[in-house]
Q: What sequence folds into this?
């Protein structure tokens, strides 16, 4: 899955990606401020999760637009300790909702390790625009709650594709997989192949030459059939 990590300046986006990927990430920055992007890949129960962190300075809007393209989920990072940043958070929240309408989102109420961090209820009343979105207290510094925050988002993102994923799993490996997919989802060839390409790129499945057949990766199949498995932590 492709996940975009966005939010205002210095909220902790880069450190969060660093934590999730256990340091296996890049950050294009100058003096500690992201000027292009963060990128890293995490493995969650055998599923690849491609993380793209955005710059938090207002002027890099074009970069945020490019990075957001086609994302399956949004981690919106806010600073729980810095009330001053709430106004900027509102601008960024509007922006990402505009770039990715209808895409699942969780709010990472970051920096909970700090003494002056606000509890989630306070953040909700301080930032009314977060209504209807899960707000999850966490710390990119200590790693507190980071895994469950990511799993919650992945669950929501996979649920949004659940009808397609169920059919991917059902017709995986069949010689006429594509035809079955088109029939069951009532869609044309171009759209069905588009879906296969999308999730091949995200390493959830492999498409065989000629596109007639596809195979869901073994590790991913149980999650495709039953995304709630993501919530049952090992
Ligand atoms: N105490 C604490 N500090 C944090 C946490 N997350 C980030 N920080 C600090 O906050 C500062 C900004 O963190 P970054 O990860 O660079 O924030 P960012 O959102 O990527 O910032 P930009 O890319 O400039 O928008 C750094 O000094 C981090 O060490 C956290 O959970 N707890
Ligand atoms: Mg950054």
A:
């Amino acid at each position: 899955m492709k996940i975009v990590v966005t939010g205002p300046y210095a909220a902790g986006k880069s450190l969060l990606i660093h934590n999730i990927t256990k340091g296996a990430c890049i950050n294009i920055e100058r003096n500690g401020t992201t000027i292009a992007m963060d990128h890293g890949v995490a493995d969650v129960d055998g599923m690849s999760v491609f993380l793209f962190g955005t710059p938090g300075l207002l002027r890099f809007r074009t970069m945020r637009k490019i990075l957001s393209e086609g994302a399956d989920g949004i981690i919106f990072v806010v600073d729980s300790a810095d009330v001053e940043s709430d106004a900027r958070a509102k601008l960024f929240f509007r922006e990402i909702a505009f770039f990715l309408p209808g895409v699942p989102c969780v709010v990472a109420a970051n920096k909970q390790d700090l003494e002056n961090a606000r509890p989630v209820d306070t953040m909700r009343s301080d930032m009314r625009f977060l209504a209807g979105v899960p707000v999850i207290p966490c710390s990119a510094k200590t790693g507190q709650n980071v895994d469950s925050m990511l799993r919650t988002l992945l669950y929501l993102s996979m649920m949004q594709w659940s009808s397609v994923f169920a059919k991917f799993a059902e017709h995986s490996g069949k010689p006429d997989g594509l035809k079955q997919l088109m029939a069951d989802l009532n869609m044309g060839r171009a759209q069905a192949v588009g879906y296969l390409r999308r999730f091949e790129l995200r390493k959830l499945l492999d498409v065989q030459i000629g596109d007639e057949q596809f195979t869901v990766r073994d590790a991913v199949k149980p999650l495709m059939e039953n995304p709630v498995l993501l919530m049952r932590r090992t």
Summary: The longest helix spans residues 146-160. The mean pLDDT is 96. Residues 2-159 form a domain with the Rossmann fold fold (CATH 3.40.50.300).
